[in-house]
């Protein structure tokens, strides 16, 4: 039986994430050419990422944990700049409703299951892979529950707050432990980086926009109550 390639497994997950993301973005209205451009840009970045990781040329092999963590946060900032400074993308992102923002996190269940599998196969350090797998699966699961709760009007805001804080904590803790603790063991070109440098920054910004909308909704309710 042929071996399951960790690299192609992660590439397949990233492609699935791109397709799922475009589907969620188009749930309430067609996204037309903007969706084609977004999908093409994400797949192009995946190709560049694969080239850099497979050739081990994306980072110095001896990069320090602190420097790698800085690179991760710079990547998050760059993704935020693309999302918020390009007008069509910004309009699309800020026009998403709370259900869509939470549904976008649902694909993390599959990433979590994959990390658990890779921990069992020895691709990831066992303790990290199991913890990361369960927290990623939990983040996706709680976000799906919150999305359905918002749609049903049953404790939607409370569950959305919980899902967002859980998901944010997952991303920040995993990124920090990966860079500061595990990097010497797995190296900067491990297959895990296909998740770190494509979906993870997007998920973080989806959480932040969801929280921003929750705050705005609470402010609106408060103003109405005091009117």
Mean pLDDT: 95
Q: How many discrete domains?
A: 1
Radius of gyration: 18 Å
Q: Determine the strand fraction and express it as a percent band.
A: under 5%
| Low-pLDDT segments | none
DSSP helix fraction? over 70%
Q: Can you offer a commentary on this structure?
A:
The chain starts with 5 loop residues before the first helix and ends with a helix. It is mostly helical and 227 residues long. The chain has ten helices and no strands. The chain has one domain.
Please supply descriptive tags for the structure shown above.
227 residues, mainly alpha, 0% strand
A few lines on this structure:
With 227 residues, the chain is mainly alpha-helical.
List the helices and strands and how they pair.
Elements: H1 6-25, H2 32-54, H3 65-85, H4 87-94, H5 98-103, H6 108-121, H7 126-152, H8 156-186, H9 193-196, H10 199-226
Helix pairs in contact: 1-2, 1-6, 3-4, 3-8, 3-10, 6-7, 7-8, 8-10
């Amino acid at each position: 039986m042929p071996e399951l390639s960790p690299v192609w497994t992660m590439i397949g997950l990233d492609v699935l994430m791109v397709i799922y993301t475009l589907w969620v973005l188009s749930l309430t209205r067609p996204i037309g050419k903007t969706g084609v451009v977004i999908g093409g840009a994400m797949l192009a970045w995946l190709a560049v990422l694969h080239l850099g990781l497979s050739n081990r040329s994306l980072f110095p092999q001896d990069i320090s944990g602190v420097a790698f963590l800085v690179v991760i946060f710079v990547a998050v900032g760059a993704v935020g700049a693309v999302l918020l400074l390009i007008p069509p993308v910004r309009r699309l992102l800020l026009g998403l409703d709370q259900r869509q923002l939470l549904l976008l996190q649902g694909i993390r269940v599959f990433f979590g299951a994959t990390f658990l599998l890779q921990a069992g196969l020895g691709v990831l350090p066992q303790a990290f892979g199991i913890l990361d797998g369960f927290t990623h699966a939990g983040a996706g699961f709680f976000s799906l529950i919150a999305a359905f709760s918002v749609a049903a009007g049953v404790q939607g805001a409370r569950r959305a707050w919980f899902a967002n804080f859980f998901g944010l904590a997952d991303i920040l803790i995993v990124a920090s432990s990966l860079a500061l603790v595990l990097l010497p063991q797995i190296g900067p070109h491990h297959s895990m980086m296909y998740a770190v440098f494509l979906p993870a920054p997007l998920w973080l910004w989806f959480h932040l926009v969801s929280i921003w909308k929750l705050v705005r909704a609470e402010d609106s309710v408060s103003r109405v109550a005091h009117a």
